[in-house]
Design a protein that fits this description.
Chain lengths: ~475, ~475
């Protein structure tokens, strides 16, 4: 990436004219719009694009890509701006391609349990559209993210322990490539062995190989019934070991979320709940009433063996929603613990047997750092986050936080895990990915990137080490 | 691919010397060994390699690849030779890399439910090694294939409806690339969003991007209990519609296999069973006794609604094994219907709602062709095969069979499905893949192939359209 990419420079006037002719008022150079698109939920300083293109169709995306390709101007796809890794920032300038107006649910096929959506459709919007079908789209990263963004970052969240991640739930894609060609990957069949798995290559490619314009996702039958329990433990270790044994027992748990006492304290303050401030698991059991009964009996026994002190049930739907809403607000609740701060969120994911060790070592590292960082996460997948609270103006603190974050990555990688379970690589994790993928892995990623985007105009500065 | 690749020519003597120095007697130029390695279960004429390298370690694979790369000589990975699509044949000559001596189960990690194996380990071997752990490796393509071969073709089989395919069950790979570098993909964590999904790119790449030297697979808890039922239907349509409704109801069925009356007839002759010769479903239900009871009640009701005539239970383990063994022998049973014939196996996979239409249209096309072709398959995934029985010496019949095969592919693709559910592309389906992937899809596949294997020495003539 070089200077000619336009940081601090104006876009070529001919490009501006061409994009204005194509999109009219939906092509914006306004500083307010640009500032909004140069900001996400990460701790990275804002980096606005030089312009924003509010595209409304695949044809328009093709036009925008072709025009920018001609001038070698970067393209940064933008959904809802809820990235935690700086995916939407524009470190090399360029045009932010905002797909929020591509927000149509194109098809719901209840018989084949799939939906075809435009990339700007959010997960809540899709689930609202599914009401009455008996089906739902389970992937739930917390934020009401766009499905395009979720596919691009291989998102997952609380339901992944049962339903998998975007990796398992994207069936097919329409993608505009770096030269404006339109690629369609996948079919509507449940499985295939018909050539390279391009769908899986593009899922998680973070806008660096193409811009998604259509996503076919799998839907799932709504569970017949569900039950939610909040279980308090005497120690973090006891909670995490209950999870390990639950997973190893093969119980098809719906969700299982861990929150340490700091997270629970943050939630109580933020969401006005009155949960006991101790290491806690939120469980959801799903299925027929009999299946739930079996699961509850088994998990209950495991929890008691590990000293669970309290099993409280949320049986009414409103109560359950309130609990999950509080869980989903946990990130903001944590941030709110320290006014004016920003959060550096870590995203370790380890093999389940190493979860207790990973979490306990994370706790020790946090304590040693002197920083505040609640621990919480989707422990059924071996995935947990710490939210390191920092004053963005305090360079020394930022440095300490980055050292801590790197330490947590190293712990996860040394235990056979990964630096990123679900947030993606974005700007901040490229060095960690390099270590994880090794020299050959980095070379292969670069070779693929170069083969599909030789000029490096697609979301430069992200993912590829 | 050009002539210099060596068809009909000798391997460069310096290469022979180098490989002999490296492998000793495990490097073979014997015509018997070569003939064996130029043959698989497909209908393609044998195409022996120029030599066979029986490798025993990753280091040896690296040596063989480096040497062949230097001389531009093709490399064809070889596992058990059970491919149905000509994957192991050597249309451009070259060296067959036989991994059958790399047959060590390197690690069984019961706590994380994974195993690390060398590519020559077969699925039955792995399951034998897992005895006593309470875990199993479910992917079951029928043949006792090597796990390397199964990963390379993205295999699946009877259990995929519940456990997924090799796509879902390979966690990590070690791969020797075209220039001899060793790539390690994936981690032991259950999920990741740490860069391009190289594991999924290599799974299903059929030896065209690299040679697998180590595979980390997911294991699953053995079901607490299981029950098998054989159900006879008045028509193919009734059987298939029962499947559609079973899947749509969300019952977590263990397996559901369809066999038409011709397949049942073939099985009775071959495996000495006395099944009623009618369209039939083999069901397997898995779980706790209560869960099985619930599933059986639901599926039983659906089957009766569709006119099921007979529900017979195989409750004893030996009886169940005998039934599944008979199912697994179905391919050979079909071939055996017509002595001396070979089978062209089609591998359509369609969205579940289109399964009845696909199967009925397939039946009509077979009838119109005048050829014999039993229909059977893993219908819970929308995947079914026809085994077109042909006299390989009869050119006119071969042509009719190929026309029929193309027609069946067209039916599947027109219904939103794929030309290959699980057998891979190999030699025969490249044109079909081109139609399915479209112009941009073919271009992307070629770009990836060229980026990772610029000289085209890895399994040339396979997969890439």
């Amino acid at each position: 990436m070089n200077d000619s990419m336009g940081v601090g420079r104006e876009l070529p006037p001919a490009l501006v004219a061409r994009l204005t002719a194509c999109l009219g008022e939906r092509f914006s150079l306004s500083s307010g719009v640009r500032a909004h698109h140069g900001h996400d939920e990460s701790h990275f300083p804002d980096q606005p694009p030089q312009a924003v293109a509010f595209v409304a169709s695949t044809a328009e995306v093709v036009e925008v890509v072709r025009a920018c390709a001609e001038y070698g101007v970067p393209l940064i796809p933008y959904g809802t701006g809820t990235s935690l890794e700086g995916h939407v920032l524009a470190p090399y300038g360029g045009v932010s391609v905002d797909v929020s107006q591509m927000n149509h649910v194109l098809e719901i096929d209840a018989e084949d349990m799939l939906a075809v959506v435009q990339p700007g459709v959010t997960r809540k919007q899709l689930n609202a559209a599914l009401r009455g079908t008996g089906l739902f789209f389970p992937i739930d990263p917390g934020a009401d993210a766009s499905i395009g963004g979720m596919a691009a970052t291989r998102a997952s969240g609380t339901n992944a322990v049962r339903y998998g991640t975007m990796r398992e739930n994207v069936l097919a894609l329409e993608v505009v490539l770096a030269d404006g060609r339109v690629l369609r990957t996948g079919t509507r069949a449940k499985k295939a062995s018909a050539g390279y798995d391009l769908t899986r290559l593009f899922v998680g490619s973070e806008g660096t190989l193409g811009i998604f314009t259509e996503i076919t996702v799998r839907l799932h039958p709504l569970p017949e019934d569900s039950a939610v329990a909040v279980v308090r433990f005497p120690s973090m270790q006891a909670a995490v070991e209950t999870v390990i044994h639950t997973i190893q027992s093969g119980v098809p748990i719906g969700r299982v979320e861990f929150l340490d006492e700091v997270s629970i304290h943050a939630i109580n303050r933020y969401s006005k709940t009155d949960l006991a401030e101790a290491p806690t698991l939120f469980f959801e059991f799903q299925g027929s009433p009999r299946a739930i009964e079996e699961q509850v009996a088994l998990v209950g026994e495991l929890a008691r063996e590990h000293g669970a002190e309290d099993f409280s049930w949320a049986s009414r739907p409103e109560e359950r929603s309130r609990l999950w809403e509080a869980r989903h607000q946990a990130y903001f609740a944590c941030i709110n613990l320290r006014p004016g701060c920003r959060g550096i969120t870590t995203d370790s994911c380890v093999p389940i047997s190493k979860l207790a060790e990973a979490v306990l070592r994370a706790r020790a590292a946090i304590d040693a750092s002197g920083l505040i960082a609640p621990i919480l996460g989707h422990v059924g997948d071996g995935n947990f986050h710490t939210v390191i609270l920092i004053d963005p103006e305090d360079a020394a603190e930022l440095e300490r936080a980055e050292t801590l974050s790197a330490e947590l990555v190293e712990i996860a990688q040394s235990l056979g895990g990964t630096c990123s379970g679900e947030h993606g690589v974005g700007m901040g994790k490229r060095a960690f990915v390099a270590r994880e993928a090794g020299e050959a892995g980095v070379a292969v990623m670069r070779a693929i990137k170069t083969a599909l985007d030789p000029r490096g105009i697609l979301n430069p500065g992200k993912l590829v080490p």
